[in-house]
Specification:
Triger factor/SurA peptide-binding fold; 3 domains; EC 5.2.1.8; rotamase; Chitinase A, domain 3; about 350 residues; alpha+beta; isomerase
Length: about 350
């Protein structure tokens, strides 16, 4: 397999970056004392072809080109020239298709999105070529229904091992803490609301929250005191029920509130909980830890999970084989179970 790596800087139209070109020419002019007429200075950015030619100022040109590349390291394809040129067995991946494919590949940065979109289309082209070369499928199957043809090809070539009971039980024993029910609790609260960006107001409300907690704890009937104060001060609709939030399980509230809430013991929390909504004065009424599930309860789910993992691994192996047998130019394939194929 022949592989070369796509670099966005190699596809940039230098005419669109005149400020950088001027900087290079101006610096050259400053270093050349014999040039005195500014009209004689040609403001051009050296191309990659120029770098291959003998030049007395080769080091300076290489530095300028490195700066040009760094300026565009996060460039996403927004025009034909900014998309990679990738070929699979001499067939170019359509750049319009790459641009359309981007929406299916969210990534941490724009370059990764372009890479993942392009790789997905390379994989699809490999599968298309495999369908065409398969005697039981061929071009007629592809023309009739592309997705069905790919599915038939995968069913024929990807054989995953079904995990037996011993494998599933061993997985359960090695990951037993993963098979517990979520803890649940019942609680009531007072919400002192404030916008996240209002720092001064948050400082005032935090002090108010501590004052209310002190007042509640000083009362001989702290629960009754919290209910009354919730009706007076809480900005949550639960104020009508004395701040009662009912039964809460993980995932039902915002993360910053939940992460602290489930660490509390029963009773009035000694400190308010801060969230994006403000400060919460909390009383935990009841708390039930998660329950350990036995193997019989989760065996079907484990078998399904391990079967899916085995299928994806087998699919990876098959696509690695197709990749090795093809001539791919313009991209270095990085096949993984998470991004292997969008089909």
């Amino acid at each position: 397999m022949t592989v070369s790596t796509y670099n966005p800087a190699d596809h940039v139209n230098c005419d669109t970056h005149a400020p950088n070109s001027s900087t290079v020419a101006d610096k050259t002019a400053m270093d050349t004392s014999t040039i005195t007429n500014k009209d004689d200075i040609v403001h051009l950015m050296p191309t990659l072809t120029d770098l291959k030619k003998p030049h007395s100022d080769q080091e300076f040109i290489e530095k300028a080109m490195a700066e040009e590349r760094s300026n565009h390291k996060n460039l996403i394809a927004s025009s034909r020239d900014e998309l990679p040129s990738v070929l699979v067995n001499g067939v170019m991946i359509d750049r319009t298709a790459i641009a359309q494919e981007l929406q299916y590949h969210p990534a941490e940065n724009k370059e990764d999105a372009v890479f993942l979109a392009t790789q997905a289309l390379v994989v699809r082209e490999l599968l298309r070529l495999a369908v065409l070369s398969d005697s039981s499928l061929g071009e007629s199957a592809w023309d009739e229904d592309e997705e069905k043809a790919i599915s038939s090809l995968i069913d024929k070539n990807v054989k995953a091992t079904t995990p037996n009971n011993a494998i599933c039980e061993r997985y359960y024993e090695q990951n037993i803490t993963d098979f517990m029910t979520d803890p649940i609790m019942s609680a009531r609260h007072i919400l002192l609301a404030c916008l996240p960006e209002d720092g001064d107001e948050r400082l005032k409300l935090k002090k108010t929250a501590y004052d209310l907690i002190e007042q509640i704890n000083a009362d001989s009937n702290s629960t009754a005191a919290l209910i009354e104060l919730a009706r007076q001060h809480s900005a949550c609709p639960s104020k009508e029920q004395g701040g009662d939030l009912g039964v809460i399980s993980k995932g039902q509230t915002v993360p910053e509130f939940e992460s602290t809430l489930f660490k509390l013991e029963t009773g009035i929390a000694p400190s308010p909980i801060e969230s994006r909504y403000g400060f919460h004065i909390v009383e935990v009424l009841n708390k039930q830890p998660g329950i350990q599930m036995n193997y019989e309860q989760v065996s079907a789910a484990i078998a399904n999970k391990l079967s899916q993992q085995a299928f994806h691994q087998s699919l990876c192996d098959y696509l690695f084989t197709l990749t090795d047998e093809a001539e791919i130019q313009g991209i270095e394939m990085v096949l993984a179970q998470e991004n292997i194929y969008r089909g």
